[in-house]
């Protein structure tokens, strides 16, 4: 029976129902139903199972291996079809921490999830997560979410990427408390185009305190003004941000002094 063959194939490979479900791209409950005989997979899932276990569909469905072709004296044109099964790789370390493997690598076609202290996979969840989609305190991926998130699109306490959202955001498009980028929006924004709720520093800057070449705000400082000095910028920041931490004033003063091709004296 199909469900018995599926069970034996899975056991012989030493993987769990959840791991097989990740390979095929279904839920663990679906695999459980297949093995109990309550339901059967569709053709796409059957093909994925056969590829993974390296068996034929005839064997998987009927328990019969394809018959060997009979010899023939006729001359035929030889046609060679190159077939490359979907590549996949998975490694799980035996050592664990907090119930998670120290290392889990799960890469290949379809939905392949890695979950561990160090997780590397199509979808990765871990303390250090690396993948197409990465979720963890330290995450690197096309899409990443974490305390420190690096990727094309990222969300985190510190986020750096093409599009970044975070308390500290660095990116082509950035949004955060302190946002630095080509286009930046935040409480404190620094960029080519910067829009800030308190301070904006950039070529085009808009904020209550705007520092740049083209500025809009209650207090405007033109970087192209030869009379503008670093101490004047600092004084304006201290007045606008009364009670702000000294390191923030120092950082914004430094950025304002160097955002223009000619640093402020």
Q: Could you tell me how far the N terminus lies from the C terminus, measured between alpha carbons in angstroms?
A: 83 Å
**Secondary-structure element string:** HHHHHEEEEEEEEHH
Largest sheet: 6 strands, mixed
Radius of gyration: 29 Å
> How would you describe the shape?
rod-shaped
**Structural class, judged by helices and strands?**
alpha/beta
Number of strands: 8
* SS strand fraction: 35-45%
Mean pLDDT: 85
Helix content: 25-40%
Q: How are the strands of the largest sheet arranged? A: 1-4-5-6-7-8
GO molecular function, one term: DNA binding
InterPro entries: Cro/C1-type_HTH, Lambda_DNA-bd_dom_sf
Keywords: DNA-binding, Membrane, Transmembrane, Transmembrane helix
Protein name: Helix-turn-helix domain-containing protein
How does this structure look, described?
The protein has 265 residues and is an alpha/beta fold. The protein has seven helices and eight strands. The strands form two sheets. Strands 1-4-5-6-7-8 form a six-stranded mixed beta sheet. It has a two-stranded antiparallel sheet with strand order 2-3. Helix 2 crosses helix 3 (28-36) and helix 6 crosses helix 7. The radius of gyration is 29 Å and the shape is rod-shaped. The model is unreliable at 68-85 (pLDDT under 50).
Give a nutshell description of this structure.
This protein is α/β, with parallel strands linked by helices. Helices cover 26% and strands 45% of the residues. The protein contains seven helices and eight strands.
Keywords:
single chain; 265 residues; alpha/beta; six-stranded mixed beta sheet; two-stranded antiparallel ribbon
